Amino acid sequence: MSRFKTLSILALAMLLAAASSAQAQNQYIGYVYPAGGQQGTTFPIRFGGQRLTDASGLVVSGEGVSARLIDYQRVMSNQELGLLRQQLNELKKKDSSLGEAMVAEMAYFEFPAIVKPPEVEGLMCPACGRLNPLDATVCIDCNANLDKQEEAKPGGANTTDAPELTEIEVAKQNLIERIERLFAEDQRNAAVRAHTEIVFAEVTVDPDAKPGRREIRVVTKRGISNPMAFYVDQVPEVSRKPMKTCQLPVLGKEHLAQRKRPVDEEEVHISVPCTMNGQIAAGEMNHYRFEASKGQRLVISAKARQLSPYVADGVPGWFQAVLRLHDADGNEIAYNDDFRFSPDPIIYVEIPEDDEYVLTINEALFRGRESFVYRITIGELPFLTSIFPLGGPVGEPVSVEMNGWNLDDVALSPAPLDAKPGIHLVAATNDSLSSNYVPFALDTLPECMDIESNDAPSSPQKVTLPIIVNGRADKPGDWDVFEVDGKAGETIVAEVNARRLGSPFDSFLKVTSADGKIIALNDDHYDAASGMNTDHADSYLMVKLPADGKYFIHLGDTRRHAGKDYAYRLRISKPQPDFVLRVAPSRFVMRSKNSAAVKVYAIRKDGYTGPIKISFKDLPEGLTSGGATIGAGKESVGLSVKTSLTESEEPINVTVVGSATIGEKEVVHRVVPTEDRMQAFLWRHLLPAEELPAIVYDPSYKAPADRIHPPIRDEDRPKDSKRTLQKSSVDWYLRQIEGLYQQWFLTDDFANGQIASIEARLITD
């Protein structure tokens, strides 16, 4: 089947699946900011999304990271905003009161802007309250000057004799800040409507949490969202102020939609090592100034596309970040806009002189909005550019060569000896730091190394099938040629794994007979299972041999590039019929005592066309499924699960497997959860997720009206109001007031006053 036919079938199937499950599985988050944090810290984050009403919690994959919900904010009506303005004015009066219940509730709303810093010593910024390193002279967040005599005590408490606020004053300040935050975030004409609901949360990362990628989701009383990437890192972090939801640009007046920020927010002072978190708005460039010493070997790596791999409404389909490094005089000393075939840029630079340096980041086309989130890490940190070989046999130790930067005194942490066949992530570590992760493949076939000189059919490397050859392009224009014996009618497969294992090697394969005749050739082979990969440069051939004799497999790089990073794994074997499975979306959301359905996709390998049985492994009590079967030659099937539960307290991760009898062997594979994502208006991808949660919700759920109004006093009722409102209008106004009251935006006195005022205007005749 051609790549384009496969794409069309998958795209149609994904669209049908999305339509069938849209009603239930519609909680969506478009970004999380910041998209990670340092080990041993607690920090605020926010999500932008839609249909997040009644947010009830958060879940983070892996161990060592916990998150708690702070608040939820939606776009409010003009009537609601008017009520909040009046309430805000009342709160700012000295004699305003909250009531005991309101005081207790506002103690819960400890908003991210005033979350207590971790218990470490430092300098408290008098302007923003941020805790800074003891040697800092300006605040790392707001650039305000710091008084070195005002050191913060553990926990961030300043040593100055500032009067302590009473419980009532703290509660009032929290409510004022909550309402002011709502006005500050309000966007009536958003560029992306799907980002206008905001969830505020707080994340705590344990000191021993494993560095690397996690996934985070928002849980609501009506379901669970898609996952977003979230990173645990090792060095201190700074975060710019969160960006307000961007305004929809108008053709010819796009400048009116651009963010207006003070000049002093363009540049942030940092100390190396550091991870910088930011968001890019349209037309913006962010600057980071730091001091560096001659000879420092700095690795500057950005995560942008890794945080949000696909953007549906823009070309090329992601945030294309650009990094530049300048010296104090403005001379550019380093530049990068991608790292090999990855759109996220990385700079390695040896600092030429003791001086100040400025790092900048922007989007290549100067697009931007709140979902264009980035993380940049800078420091003398270990970084792997490649390993060799790219894999090895299951259960056997492999000696691996590391290439990269700052790799002195580090050792590669290999995949466990009991690891199963597949791709595993490995990193180089020392006593305190870990490098980036790189893929390492494990397989059950025999393996060998590429042996030079095997550059032509006259001097080939003879191999016996089946075999995996680990090799690399040693010189520009290098061809590696392998000789195999074949028989008439026999089918052999030649498959390259390079790009899918992080190698820049851009393969080209051809099979020739002993007389030099080309039997088959291939440049690029599309692999629908590699969801984040858009550069399908690995080659694949399955060819039926015409006669007995010798055959030669030729492998080269199409761009004639070479070097120690240009590694590959070449499988030469008879067909090994197999399959991999994907399920979308990556969650089951079920109504009470009802069911939910997802779509399972089969990506078939080496010509396997047989049926595949799909089933759940160890479903928890209250969930049942009859499974499904992907028919012979078919690409997908619907899979449903039923529940006898009214609701579940929290999501439960489930596992789906697929099995098939291939020859005399029973083959079982886990079905990988995925999200169906569109790239640049057209292309669709199945983006892998780590977990497959299931949740049951009660569709009749209503947020509890647990606040009870005190009696309205006679003196609160207007005496001579004009009766101008019909009952329907009065009911509408009262619903607005009650909604804000139950969400703890309004005090008892203010709400009762508004209710009395509205009721007094009811037309009674």
UniProtKB/TrEMBL annotation:
UniProt signal peptide: 1-24
Which UniProt keyword terms apply here?
Answer: Hydrolase, Protease, Signal
State the EC number(s): 3.4.21.-
Using the UniProt record, name the top-level EC class of this enzyme in a single word. Answer: hydrolase
Which GO annotations describe the biological process of this protein? proteolysis
GO molecular-function term, one example from the UniProt record: peptidase activity
In terms of superkingdom, the source organism counts as: Bacteria
Question: Protein name, please?
Answer: Putative subtilase-type serine protease
